[in-house]
Design brief:
The complex is a heterodimer of chains A (about 280) and B (about 425).
Chain A: E1 7-9, H1 20-25, H2 27-42, H3 51-70, H4 80-102, H5 104-107, H6 109-112, H7 121-151, H8 165-188, H9 193-207, H10 223-228, H11 232-243, H12 250-281
Helix pairs in contact in A: 2-7, 3-4, 4-7, 4-8, 4-11, 8-11, 8-12
Chain B: E1 3-15, H1 21-35, E2 59-71, E3 75-80, H2 86-93, E4 101-106, E5 110-113, H3 126-136, H4 141-155, H5 170-182, E6 188-192, H6 200-215, E7 220-224, H7 228-234, E8 237-242, E9 245-251, H8 252-264, E10 276-284, E11 292-293, E12 299-312, E13 315-322, E14 325-331, H9 332-335, E15 341-352, E16 360-369, E17 376-388, E18 415-419, E19 423-427, H10 429-435
Parallel strand pairs in B: 3-7, 3-8, 5-6, 6-7, 11-17
Antiparallel strand pairs in B: 1-2, 1-4, 8-9, 10-12, 12-15, 13-14, 13-16, 15-18, 16-17, 18-19
Helix pairs in contact in B: 3-4, 3-5, 4-5
Classes of the chains: A mainly alpha (about 280), B alpha/beta (about 425).
Chain lengths: ~280, ~425
């Protein structure tokens, strides 16, 4: 009897058996999901992708008014809109990816119950399709940047030599949101309580990230705690590259990168184990 | 021919009730047991899935120790009652859920069609959805491209292909979805009653396509269905599942026969009436006792009753009903034929010649009234079932040109009734029509 079986269906996945090859085989599906996500958002809307901008712009002007004009929080000497837009652009990407990935199982139960494909395809395509939204907001950020440079009244410094950091920063954010998202998605598929906690935790995390304030404005006593947040150095570095303000340290970035890879690996393993039994618990 | 699917001792356990705090407790216990190298305390092997029996265990085996092989080019039907484990088997084979114990070995790519149009997005056009659906089912982009024209042609939606599918009629939607599935290039197809969609014409087209897939392309198909005629006409082999266990494996006719006989062995009616008791029901055609009849067979129904007292001029009625309602009937209230009296053992033998019924399941209903018609001796209850399995490809239940010919009731049919082997009565529809 020849034993060249192409597939063996067994009770449980070994936690380390992650079939990356299979995901590669489904790359066309990833591409189609990305296209679906993008197209379906602004079909039948008049402004289309412009909606990606209006939300954040509104937020930024609210922040400028509230935190800068009313509460007089520091913006590191930057014009309010420029300061807040940088942080929210990155944070919005993180949040969109994380929330999307965290609802992989709960949001696609119907689909997963009918057909098999590597479940990781869903969060991966989400990370990619959110890049479009990110690029629109990033473009707006650049427009603001250009405007304030031409105004020439601010002490803005553009670190051209560090521009290479931008894709790395985005990569790290994507990795953290993917890793944490699929981890949460796996855990909440069985214990729903967790999704409540996650909602609260995400809001807390946003306040623990220098989006509405610069790291400099934090008293030394609390700084070490805020530095544990792997997203903080990313946002600070982002501002540093384009405006020359904020604290930037390569070690902090390295910490974020290691954290990102660590959580991704954990996430993938747990996700891998969950995807086989998920349909029985949902 | 070589084996392409090998199912070995497959079992699947499900948890009953809710997932809540107790789940967390059990998970912790399970984890402790595992750490100490013991067996899972909640995996009790050797308990059968019997729905009506209430076990205090909150776990249930919906599939137990199932093993079978599928050879290349086979079309295997999977039949069984609701809850027999058909869907669970399907889900395991299509990798949607994993088995609790046992394994399945597969050679070749599997595509499962548990539903048509999985993942269809209403905002996307027909063309975009073909790509989306195809990719979800595991096709590569170039494979879809190669079959795009064929798919559009098969679905017959050429004009609408660049319109969002939310504007499609439900028929078009289903046709497009099936067309994608029908052009999958996978070596093994798993199909779950997707044929029960669309109009009669399209169903025929689907059946034809499935036939082509298995017979001329030599691909392997596993087909799960309640619709016995489709199973019979498509499959060459079949397995019968019962309470999660494999009950019978064999060629398709034997398995269907086994299934139907196990169904009809169940007692449908326990008479509670003290006066008249139904003791047994026997269904046969002109040749032998059977619950599977063909179009044009004679249908003979023999009832054994026991009457505890002398009943004068009782009236009986018998009706044959499909899911759409009564299709055949013999009614003593209308035709007026009554025996003078019955007492003790009573044998009724109804005979309908050359039944014009199509592939379907039919139920038998029987009732009896006293001579004044006011006293119900036996309510009209289901006393049995039979199936018509015919190769006629019409959809529906009754093939007849004279459906509305009777002035009386369309339910009346020519029949003959024998009581206790001596009183005989022949009912002809024409006679009644003349009287009216």
């Amino acid at each position: 009897m020849n034993e060249d079986w192409s597939l063996i269906i067994e009770p449980k996945n070994k936690w380390y058996k992650v079939n990356l090859r299979e995901i590669w085989d489904y790359r066309d599906l990833i591409a189609i999901f990305v296209k679906r996500d993008i197209v379906s958002i602004y079909k039948q809307t008049i402004l289309g992708p412009v909606w990606f901008l209006l939300g954040p712009l509104f937020t930024v002007f609210t922040y400028t008014f509230l935190f800068s004009e009313v509460a007089h929080l520091s913006t590191d000497g930057l014009p309010g809109p420029l300061f807040y837009l940088g942080g929210t652009t990155l944070w919005n990407y993180f949040q969109a990816c994380f929330n999307g990935a965290a609802s992989t199982f709960s949001g696609n139960a119907g689909l997963f119950g009918k057909v098999y494909f590597p479940r990781l395809v869903i969060p991966i395509s989400l990370i990619i399709s959110n890049l479009l939204k990110l690029s629109f907001q990033f473009l707006t950020y650049l427009l603001f940047l250009v405007y304030y440079y031409t105004q020439n009244e601010q002490k803005l410094v553009f670190h051209y030599e560090l521009l290479i950091l931008i894709p790395i920063i985005i990569f790290i954010i994507a990795t953290i949101s993917l890793g944490a998202g699929i981890l949460i998605s796996s855990l909440t598929s069985k214990y729903r309580d967790l999704s409540m906690i996650v909602g609260i935790a995400l809001t807390l995390l946003m306040y623990a990230t220098p989006i509405m304030y610069p790291m400099n404005a934090i008293p030394e006593l609390y700084k070490p705690f805020l530095k544990l947040n792997p997203i903080s150095p990313l946002i600070e570095a982002f501002r540093y590259v384009f405006t020359g303000t904020g604290t930037f340290s390569p070690y902090q970035l390295l910490y974020s990168l290691i954290f990102a890879l660590f959580i991704l690996i954990i996430g993938v393993f747990v996700f891998n184990k969950t995807e086989k039994t998920f349909m029985d618990t949902v | 021919m070589s084996t392409v699917i090998k199912v070995e001792n497959l079992s699947k356990q499900y948890r009953l009730g809710l997932v809540g705090a107790s789940t967390f407790k059990e998970d912790t216990k399970r984890w402790f047991a595992k750490m100490r190298g013991k067996e899972d305390p909640f995996l009790k092997l050797g308990v059968e899935n019997e729905k009506s029996v209430r076990d205090n265990s909150s776990f249930v085996w919906s599939l137990k120790d199932v093993s079978f092989d599928v050879k290349k080019g086979d079309v295997l039907g999977v039949i069984g009652n609701n809850g027999a484990g058909k869907s669970t088997l399907l889900k395991i084979l299509s990798k949607i859920t994993s088995p609790t114990t046992g394994k399945v070995k597969v050679k070749g790519r599997i595509a499962s069609l548990l539903e048509v149009g999985t993942g269809f997005h209403p905002e996307l056009t027909g063309r975009e959805n073909i790509y989306l659906n195809g990719a979800i089912l595991g096709m590569r982009k170039h494979e879809i491209q190669a079959h795009l024209d064929e798919i559009i042609d098969f679905a017959g939606v050429d004009r609408y292909i660049d319109t969002p599918v939310k504007r499609y009629s439900s028929g078009m939607y289903v046709r497009l979805a099936f067309a994608v599935s029908a052009h999958l290039q996978n070596e093994i197809l798993i199909i779950d009653e997707v044929l029960a969609v669309g109009d009669a014409d399209f169903q025929k087209k689907c059946l034809g396509k499935m036939d082509q897939i298995s017979k001329s392309e030599g691909r392997t198909v596993i087909f799960v269905s309640h619709i016995l005629p489709s199973v019979k006409s498509l499959c060459n082999k079949a397995i019968l599942l019962k309470n999660g266990c494999l009950n019978y494996t064999g060629n398709v006719n034997d398995t269907i026969g086994e299934y139907l006989s196990s169904v009809s062995n169940q007692l449908f009616y326990n008479s509670s009436s003290d006066i008249l008791v139904l003791k047994s029901v026997k269904i046969s055609n002109q040749v032998k006792q059977t619950t599977i009849l063909d179009f044009g067979d004679d249908l003979i129904i023999e009832l054994n009753l026991f009457s505890n007292k002398k009943i004068f001029t009782p009236s009986f009625w018998l009706s044959i009903e499909s899911v759409y309602g009564p299709v055949y009937g013999a009614n003593a209230i209308i035709d007026g034929f009554r025996p003078d009296f019955i007492e003790g053992e009573v044998k009724l033998k109804y005979k309908f010649e050359k039944i014009k019924l199509l592939s379907q399941e039919y139920t038998l209903h029987f009732g009896a009234r006293d001579s004044d018609l006011n006293t119900l001796l036996m309510p009209s209850l289901i006393i049995g079932r039979f199936n018509v399995v015919t190769s006629l490809n019409e959809i529906g239940f009754l093939k007849t040109n004279d459906f509305f010919s009777g002035n009386f009731s369309p339910l009346l049919r020519d029949y003959s009734l024998q009581i206790n082997d001596n009183i005989e009565y022949d009912f002809k529809l024409e006679k009644v029509n003349k009287n009216v």
